[in-house]
Design a protein that fits this description.
Layout (H helix, E strand, L loop, with lengths): L2 E3 L4 E4 L11 E5 L6 H9 L20 H5 L1 E4 L11 H11 L5 H10 L13 H14 L4 E5 L7 H18 L2 E5 L3 H7 L2 E6 L2 E7 H6 L1 E7 L11 E8 L2 E7 L2 H4 L4 E4 L2 H14 L15
Parallel strand pairs: 3-6, 3-7, 4-5, 5-6
Antiparallel strand pairs: 1-2, 7-8, 9-11, 9-12, 10-11
């Protein structure tokens, strides 16, 4: 699947091949301009691919009203109507969604301390995010999609938002996709990871499997400049007399005379981002490791 914008065909996504499991909480990470919002907008049916196709919950995105009701979307600016009160937002949500759950909506509004008469334009950023989340969840969707919903929130508001996000996922039995550049948020709530850089998926898979399938090797400086056969080096850093490399692990690496250490989620993500930035021509086979797992 490829997406281009404008007359000059600015590339937003290039030859993306990706299959993700249902019912998971998926973290979508990457630098600004990587194509994260474009991918989510495609998944919601807000735009269409230039070439190729995609399927969400077994159908073309936004194929009909029934499919729209199965997906809840919270945009980056947690879009709510400033002139509408909280109660008016809930009434509007009920009119637009045949599966609307008024009990869930009212209960959640009360739990986060919102008053029915408050206008959305007078709410704090955290309160607007909670209102948008409640509206998306009260549809009782099968999939919740979040595009950087907590990026502008302070740490306390962000923590509350993420807690409520997970509560909704559990209550609804829904899957979720969370786009974020805050790796701590992703590590806290996501069990599946997609790293998107340079308009392409660099790696994707179960978070635990990805961490178990990579390691940081430490050796003499320059040892990884020409890696030994069988070593798949993702990125290398130098410090004094030593070099450390994030690599994919396997039988070939286990037998090598290097000190091996586990990688953190941040190290893993930064390694793939570094490789994409340094060698964009490599393009990493559309995330061959895990993208179709």
């Amino acid at each position: 699947m490829t997406k281009k914008y404008g007359r000059r065909g600015k590339l937003a996504l290039s030859d993306v091949h990706l299959s993700v499991p249902a019912g998971r909480v998926i973290g979508l990470v990457g630098p600004n301009g990587a194509g994260k919002s474009t991918l989510l907008h495609l998944a919601c049916g807000l735009t269409e691919p230039t070439s190729g196709s995609l399927s969400v919950l077994g159908s073309r995105p936004a194929a009909n009203a029934s499919h729209l009701a199965r997906v809840g979307f919270v945009a980056q600016n947690t879009s709510v109507y400033g002139a509408f009160t909280v109660a008016e937002h809930l009434k509007f949500g009920a009119r637009m969604n045949p599966g609307w759950d008024p009990v869930l909506a009212e209960r959640r509004i009360g739990q986060v301390g919102l008053s029915a008469g408050q206008k959305a334009g007078q709410l704090s950023g955290g309160q607007r995010a909670q209102l948008a989340l409640t509206i998306a969840a009260a549809k009782r969707p099968e999939l919740l999609i979040f595009d950087e919903p907590a990026a502008a929130l302070d740490p306390l508001a962000r923590r509350g938002f993420l807690q409520n996000l997970m509560e909704f996922v559990l209550e609804l039995g829904a899957g979720a996709v969370l786009s974020s550049h805050l790796l701590g948020d992703v590590e806290q709530v996501c069990d599946y990871l997609i790293v998107l850089c340079d308009a392409r998926v660099q790696v994707a898979g179960d978070t635990r499997e990805l961490l178990a399938g990579h390691a940081r090797l430490v050796a003499a400086r320059g040892e990884f400049d020409q890696p030994r056969a069988g070593i798949d080096v993702i990125s290398v850093e130098h410090s004094g007399k030593h070099s450390s490399a994030v690599v994919r692990t396997g039988a070939a690496t286990e037998a090598l005379p290097y000190r091996s250490e586990p990688v953190t989620l941040e190290e893993l993500v930064l390694a793939y981002m570094t490789r994409a930035a340094a060698v964009p021509a490599a393009r990493t086979e559309a995330a061959a490791w895990g993208a179709t797992r």
